[in-house]
Design goal:
The longest helix is centred in the N-terminal third of the chain and has 56 residues. The chain has four domains: 128 residues, no CATH class; 96 residues, Beta-Lactamase; 68 residues, no CATH class; 158 residues, 2-Layer Sandwich (Heat Shock Protein 90), CATH 3.30.565. The relative contact order is 0.05. The strands form three sheets. A five-stranded antiparallel sheet has the order 2-1-5-4-3, sandwiched between helices. The protein starts with 6 loop residues before the first helix and ends in a 19-residue tail after the last strand. The chain contains 13 helices and twelve strands. The chain is α+β, with helices and mostly antiparallel strands.
Amino acid sequence: MTMDEPAENREGLGLRRRAIDLLFAGSPRESLVLTLMIGLFIVLVDLISRDNVSLGPIYIIPIMVAAPHLRRWHLVLVSVLIALVREALAPERWDSLVGTRMVLTILAYLGVGFLTNEMARNRRLSMAYITQLREEVRRREEAEGQLRSIIDSSPAAILTTDDQGKVDLANRAANELFGYRGTDLAGRRIGEFLPVVEDLLRYDTGASSYRAATTCRGKRATGELFQACVWFSTYSTPTGKRLAAIVTDTSEDLRDWQETSFQSLLRSTRVLVGSVSHEIRNICAAIGLVHANLGRIPEVAATEDYAALGTLAAGLARVATVELNSASEREPSAVDLGAVLDELAIVLEPDLEAHGIEFLIHRESSALPMVCGEHHGLLQVFLNVIRNSIRALESAERKSIEIRTSADDESVLVKVSDSGPGVQNPERLFQPFQTGADAVGLGLFVSRAIVRASSGELYHLAGGPGCTMCVRLRTMFSLEPSLATGEQGKEDE
């Protein structure tokens, strides 16, 4: 039925539907009452005209009204009862053909009743299915609306493309990220602003889908380049493969990371230069002593080699006194030690798992006070200490590293303990350029310098199994620097 059909046809269809609703949609009680009323009316009419006209076919009407709400064996009883009433009121009642007539009448009533009952059952199932379908459609539309709202309000750029690399959908953040604020990304090729992703689309993986993340160069509509972090996945549809991507601008993170790395390198370099300068000054002192002794010999003091030796010693002394300063050196600030330890666990997880080492962090309280220092520098200190423990545990039978924290009003103490063989020569732990070290033997030396730069202290705690390194840090609530006391008396240098 279409809107082009005549109005009377549409009205007729509406009347038929309403009639069906009246027949099938009523309650069982209403239908039974209506059946009795119709049946009584037909009986009264049949009593009046019983000798003139047979109303047998009209008895089908109450069966049709009652059938949608009766069971099958009920229909059999009703059909037999109405057939008996019809026979009793028929003009040719109880003649020689009564048996045949009763059988045919009952079968006709049963056929109409069963047909009506099945139609009603199918209609109820259809209506239940339509109701369920409408509810599912409503839920789907609600879910789509929520998903669309989440995508549109997301601060990250979200977009989808077809198998040719053309953007199908892009949220507001994507338009803003790539500089298309006045227009929409839809229909543009993703290679215009993310060339790497378009290259990935050309990679044929067959029917399989893949998901990955990458850091690549992005390009805005103005031609400005930026560093983009892209999480993407492919999925298949009846019309072909699709790609969904989430993109964020990590340029600021890159700048922060480069600045932090540069500052960390600068601090470590100053410590290294200081250590080298200290060794050079020792050498210069020895050369100076030898130079002075040789000067007492007249024949040697008059030679050019003696003068050159003095010039060399003086030049080395001047080099050793040069300090590596940095105009960008920052004062120690407040650091969340809990966040440093959490980040430490994340960074060390692969190494610890590869070596089969159990790693535990025990905190005296859930919230540690803010400490004085620099986040990246303290992280490097703990990484260096624990990596020393990892090397010490390579041949240990039981492999475990524990970190315990305790705090008071002035400082926070962090103990890093391992189940290794312990330190053979604790007095040499913090000496630079140690013989037998993995590199140049400056790890703990530099770490202690970083901690001391924040008015803290790094030391070895003697006694007990394994090795225990302690880092005591000043809290931001203390007015004066608080170095390790008490337990520091056990420090081995």
